[in-house]
Design goal:
heterodimer; A: 284 residues; Rossmann fold; 2 domains; 7-stranded antiparallel beta sheet; B: 466 residues; FAD/NAD(P)-binding domain; 3 domains; 16 strands; 34% helix
Chain lengths: 284, 466
């Protein structure tokens, strides 16, 4: 059992949890992920490490409420426990020697990109962060990100905060202005990463993406996280999750991510129903 | 000694009706009653040479336990088995006895051999349901060892070392111990409650099992030595699934057998209240001819498929699966497409599998494996309509640990190089066994390797202590 040391609602859809897992905290690096199960009957889901504290022995995860399991996880309280928490899995991001980097975070992707920006900033690299959200209510980790970069650019789809537009608009203008980066790190929904790659490609700008695929074990055993990179099949869990974005077959990856969409929808409905019932039980 | 029962055939094993069991996950083979077991035991003539024992990778004293069954001393029979085999309820069910102990039985020369496997299973089941287990925790010898991977090899190694007084810590990557016994072999062949009961026995012996620990990620070999473990056993298995590298293999609806079986067996996707999803396929092609292919096909049927095919490139005699599994699969209505190889998976416009192109094969000259090489018949292409394809082509050892342990010598297939008798690897104090060394093989061979390594690790630590 793994204790939830801290729980913080970052926005109506995004929750932060600090989990007591000393073995994972001792070893994890930016870019790596964990697999957790909320309870004995739960499914295993991968979540990227958002932060870690080796001394406290805790790992921070930040997740969006998208399915039954994340709903169930969000319903767990501070001080409570989750059944399983395994990691650190996947390869750490290769950050060594980078001098100038653009970190592009889309929505929840900012949480996953944060430890990389922070590590790069601590290494003394020049870090441009472009953070994009649908609107001002969904903004997360603004202060943290600002403290972990040289320039922070905020974009919202509706213009309710920061600049009006997508992360790709800002990135393109930065590249057009002559900025050259050792690497652009793009983390967010697959569709965003795909468009970021489309923007950087004409500039021949090396771009690394973090592939958040469906997984079961996370250790190379099931192969359901497989994707095509440069014409070869790779496993996101052991070969990644970071890949050269210009080589990733995003169409295939986006299609594969919909493998269990119908079952997920049904599970959400069922959870909502049973959850309401439970709430009603308390009403006298 | 009483005159042996010379009936040429085994006591038949009671089984669930095929048309009933294809819709449930309950165990197929129901097990002998006491009467059946005693009757079968009388078929053993108690020959002097005991060839059956040589056929057993863990050298169970087979004639001795069968003699005790004859005398209805079931508890003593069980204790005779566990003197050398720590997982009898498992072995009685999934060992390929027909190529091991029973292959050597003299009764097999005329008629069927003694049903050694069924008797082993009977003893284990009888003991589990009749005896309140009386585990005596062995006296500690003060030495610490680590076992990585809680599958058949690791569990056996841990059990043997614990019995010798070692403080054994196991590191398991999954949330439950058991390895392939939990995620791979289905409930209807090996009930999970039995696996967990065997594991509970180890815990009572004092073995500590740390789940959710991916060795190589949370701790390297060197770090384990620094933590005071004096010897380490690697039983990390062969978990990396192979694919065919044919076009269309990444379409939605193509699965590795590992993924499919893990969702069913370990994650219990079919059970009420469990959250892991499974793709509800109607027509399924399972590619491969081993036990894993049979398991995947029979699971797919139980998950509600209307038609399930086994697609295998050689002929029936070359099927690597146990004859019993093939027989059970056929009884349940699995359709065998033999001498047939997939060449391409096709999908609809949204990328979901709709069919698979295959080509007929014929057998040519024997290849390096000694089996006749399958050769495509030109112009024999055909298509089968399926909405799911499960690849059961075999597995390779997981590279996770070796990738962070450069000193650990492996061969070109990624298998750990280990001494055949002792399991010693290229690193002093580090032993290995099971599928991690041999590539995908059987439960009992892994157990045999775990046993040999335990003896060698004991010798190593004791010689160092002097």
């Amino acid at each position: 059992m793994y204790r939830i040391v801290k729980k913080q609602v970052l926005n109506p859809q995004v929750v932060l949890m600090e989990i007591e897992a000393p073995a994972v905290a001792a070893k994890c690096q930016p870019g790596q992920f964990t697999v957790l199960r909320v309870n004995e009957q739960g499914e295993r889901i991968p979540l990227t490490v958002a932060d870690f504290d080796r001394e406290k022995g805790t790992v921070t995860i930040i997740f969006q409420i998208v399915g039954k399991t994340t709903m169930l996880l969000a319903d767990q309280e501070e001080g409570g426990f989750i059944t399983d928490f395994v990691g650190p899995l996947g390869r750490a991001s290769e950050l060594e020697g980078l001098k100038k980097v653009a970190v592009i975070g889309g929505g929840l992707g900012c949480a996953i990109a944060y430890p990389q920006a922070k590590a790069l900033h601590e290494m003394g690299a020049e870090v441009d962060v472009v953070a994009g959200f649908r609107d001002k209510d969904l903004i997360i980790l603004q202060d943290e990100m600002k403290a972990a970069c040289t320039n922070y650019y905020l974009m919202t789809d509706d213009g309710s905060a920061g600049e009006h537009g997508f992360v790709t608009n800002k990135l393109e203008s930065l590249l057009k202005a002559g900025n050259q980066y050792d690497v652009v790190i793009a983390i967010g929904p697959m569709i965003m990463m795909k468009f970021v790659c489309a923007v950087t490609k004409p500039f021949n700008q090396k771009t690394i993406v973090s592939m958040n695929t469906i997984m079961v074990d996370g250790t190379g055993m099931c192969g359901c996280c497989r994707l095509t990179v440069g014409g070869e099949t790779k496993f996101a869990c052991v070969d990644g999750p970071d890949f050269d974005g210009h080589l990733v077959d995003f169409e295939e990856a986006m299609r594969r991510s919909k493998m269990y969409l119908d079952q997920e929808k049904a599970a959400i409905e069922e959870y909502k129903k049973s959850h309401e019932c439970n709430l009603m039980k308390g009403v006298k | 000694m009483a005159k042996a029962n010379m009936t040429p055939t085994k006591q038949p094993m009671p089984e669930q009706d095929p048309m009933v069991r294809r819709n449930n996950l309950k165990e197929v083979a129901l097990g002998y009653t006491e009467e059946m077991a005693v009757e079968e035991a009388t078929r053993c003539i108690g020959c002097k040479n005991k060839p059956c024992v040589e056929g057993c990778p863990v050298l169970v004293d087979i004639p001795a336990f069968i003699e005790l069954v004859k005398e209805r001393k079931f508890k003593e029979a069980y204790l005779t088995i566990v003197a050398t085999n720590s997982l009898p309820a498992v072995c009685g069910r999934v060992c390929p006895q027909e190529t091991q102990c029973e292959a050597k039985c003299v009764r097999g020369a005329k008629g069927e051999p003694v049903a050694i496997g069924r008797l082993e299973r009977f003893c284990a089941d009888w003991y589990m349901s009749n005896i309140e287990e009386e585990f005596e925790k062995p006296v500690s010898n003060g030495h610490k060892v680590a076992v990585i991977g809680a599958g058949p090899a690791g569990l056996t190694c841990a059990g043997d070392l614990a019995k010798l007084g070692y403080q054994v810590t196991m590191f398991e990557a999954f949330h439950l111990a058991g390895g392939v016994l939990m995620y791979g072999i289905p409930e209807f062949r090996l009930p999970k409650a039995i696996v967990q009961k065997e594991i509970k026995g180890l815990i009572q012996l004092g073995v500590e099992i740390k789940t959710n620990m991916v060795a190589g990620k949370v701790a390297t070999i060197d770090e384990l030595f620094e933590q005071g473990y004096e010897a380490i056993f690697l039983g990390t298995g062969a978990g990396l699934p192979m694919f065919m590298n044919i076009p269309g293999e990444n379409y939605n609806g193509v699965f590795s057998a590992n993924e499919y079986l893990t969702r069913v067996n370990l994650m219990k996707c079919y059970a009420d209240g469990f959250d892991t999803p499974i793709f509800k396929a109607k027509k399924v092609a399972v590619v491969g001819g081993g036990n894993v292919a049979m398991d995947a096909a029979r699971c797919a049927q139980r998950m509600g498929a209307d038609e399930v095919y086994i697609v295998y490139r050689r002929s029936e005699v070359e099927l690597p699966a146990r004859v019993e599994e093939v027989h059970h699969a056929k009884e349940e209505g699995i359709i065998f497409k033999l001498l047939c190889n997939p060449v391409k998976v096709n999908a609809d416009e949204k990328g979901w599998v709709k069919s698979m192109d295959c080509i007929e094969m014929e057998l040519g000259e024997p290849d390096a494996s000694g089996r006749r090489r399958p050769i495509p018949k030109p112009g024999s292409d055909f298509t089968i309509d399926v909405d799911a394809v499960i690849m059961a082509l075999g597995t390779n050892p997981n590279p996770l640990l070796r990738s962070v342990t450069p000193a650990l010598q492996t061969n070109k297939w990624g298998c750990i190089v280990a001494d055949e008798k002792t399991g010693l690897t290229s690193i002093e104090g580090v032993y290995a066994g099971g599928d991690a060394v041999t590539g995908a093989a059987t439960v009992i061979l892994a157990m045999g390797a775990g046993k040999d390594a335990a003896a060698a690790m004991d010798k190593y630590i004791q010689s160092k202590a002097k």
